[in-house]
Structures are given as structure tokens and as C-alpha cells.
Design goal:
The protein has 145 residues and is an all-alpha fold. Helices cover 63% and strands 0% of the residues.
Amino acid sequence: MNPQASRQDAVRPSLAKRAIASTLIVSCSLMALPMHASAQVVPTDALVQQDAPAGTAADSRVRVNAFFAREDVRQAMVKEGVNPADAQSRVDAMSDDEIRALDGRIAQAPAGGDVLGVIFAVFVILLVTDILGFTKVFPFTRSIR
């Protein structure tokens, strides 16, 4: 064996290190390219949700509570493993903005049916509140607190 060749192999970086270094060089070079941004005035009509049902938060709360009181919705929740009483208590604890958003989703659901989308939305809300440590509905979550 040639001692000079083995010394050169020891100094030469591996293929993975060369690939990482090349990627970093290219990405750092691309960061130097100028970025373009534009700002425009957004009209109020574009920001106002036209799909949301009109009315106050109290009206939205009444509609959402009436929806959750329906027997087919309760059966669908039980089928998905959600306790209807827990879901109702979570709905009661929602803020006005959350109630309006949920009411808008219920209003957009097709007649006769996309109950699973609403139940999924409630499930996600319950899951997030469990993870944040506000509730303990699901046994498979761990609180971040």
C-alpha cells in the first residue's frame, strides 16, 4: 500500500459531506437573489365573509346548539367515538368567533348531509384543546403543559 494514497483518502471528505456542502453553497447563493414583494389596498368587501350566516353570536349559538341537539348528529358522534355531552360542553365553552365559524360550516354543509365534516371539525377542536391542556377528553393525547 502506498502511504501517500491512504493519507489523501483520510483528508478527502466523504461523498455525503461533499453533497451537503454543495447543497448549502447552492442554497446560500440563492438566498442572495433579490426578492420582490408588492402591497395593495384590500377592499373591505374582500375581507368580510359573505358565506357566514347573518346575525349575532347569540343567533349562531342557538343554531349550533339546535344542530347538536338533533338525534342523527348525536348518533354520528357516538359512532365516531365522541361523547355528545362532552361535545356539547365544548361547544358551550367556545368563543363567539369560534361559534360563528362553526355555524358557517354547518350552514355550508349540504342538506342531508355532510355531518362528518362538522363532526371532524369538533374532533379537531377537542383534540387541539386536549393537546394545549385545557381539557382531557381523549386518553391518547398528552398535554404540552
